[in-house]
Write a structure and sequence with these properties.
mainly alpha; globular
Length: 268
């Protein structure tokens, strides 16, 4: 693997790990940075989706005790069964919408200007949602009823259809609207990412693995490991942050970045 490929993998791994779980759109940032690095095409798209596995493994590692407890206790624990069912139900809309639209979205929307527009619109949406004076009805992920899980799954469709909206942003903001506390909304977004992103990564890898060379596999592996390490750091910081703060700072970041990108695009 040449030094440039290693550097690209390191940079993109950092971007993925840093942005996957905050409401700024990891896919949008990866598309922008890939274009900046000149790393585009089918392999590049596969790489961007594959390294999400690193971020998801960070969730699995940090929540390993919770996941293990749910896995062994679900036959006799109603709360564990409800959490599993909620995750499955909330995943269905993403699968139903994502599979038939994947290739069209990659061909037409995996570009800087649609991402920039989605960043701005998503930022405005976060500001409007944060202005609502609502009290949380559900403090933890164990309290979430099935109807709320369905609603969060429907919000997730926005991120599937529009790169730049942010999967975490759509699910967290949707969960807040539906009555979850900030911590519960954030953690449910983490758990919901596990089947969605693992499925997307493996499906994309299945479609392109015959095209990958040994050097490509090394690049993919480096990006995955880097995203794993960075995601662990970010998740810990994010959980501490959302316990006492709103998501407004992320909204303004999105709006400023999106406007700069739109201006640059218009200026050629």
């Amino acid at each position: 693997m040449d030094i440039w490929s290693l550097l690209q993998a390191l940079i993109l791994g950092i971007v993925e790990g840093a942005t996957e779980f905050i409401p700024v759109s990891s896919t949008g940032h990866l598309i922008l940075v890939q274009n900046w690095l000149g790393f585009t095409g089918e392999k590049a798209n596969a790489f961007a989706i594959f390294i999400q596995l690193g971020a998801i493994l960070a969730v699995v590692w940090l929540y390993r005790t919770k996941l293990f407890t749910v896995a062994i206790s679900w036959p006799h624990d109603a709360a564990a069964r409800r959490l599993i069912l909620n995750i499955l139900i909330a995943t269905i809309p993403a699968v139903v919408v994502g599979l038939p639209t994947e290739k069209w979205i990659e061909a037409h929307l995996f570009k800087p200007w649609p991402v920039a527009l989605a960043l701005v619109l998503g930022g405005v949406a976060i500001l409007l949602i944060e202005r609502r004076d609502t009290r949380a009805s559900f403090a933890t992920i164990d309290e979430i009823p099935i109807r709320i899980a369905v609603g969060v799954g429907l919000f997730q469709i926005l991120a599937i259809l529009f790169p730049g909206i942010s999967r975490s942003g759509a699910t967290i903001m949707g969960a807040l609207i539906l009555g979850l506390s900030r911590l519960a909304a954030t953690e449910f977004s983490f758990f919901l990412a596990i089947p969605v992103l693992i499925g997307a990564s493996l499906l994309k890898l299945k479609n392109v693995y015959m095209l990958l060379t040994p050097n490509d596999w090394l690049t993919f592996s480096v990006g995955l490991v880097v995203s794993f390490v960075v995601a662990i750091i970010v998740i810990r910081r994010l959980l501490a942050y959302v316990s006492h703060n709103s998501f407004t700072v992320f909204a303004w970041y999105r709006i400023v970045l999106g406007c700069i990108l739109l201006f640059a695009w218009r200026a050629g």
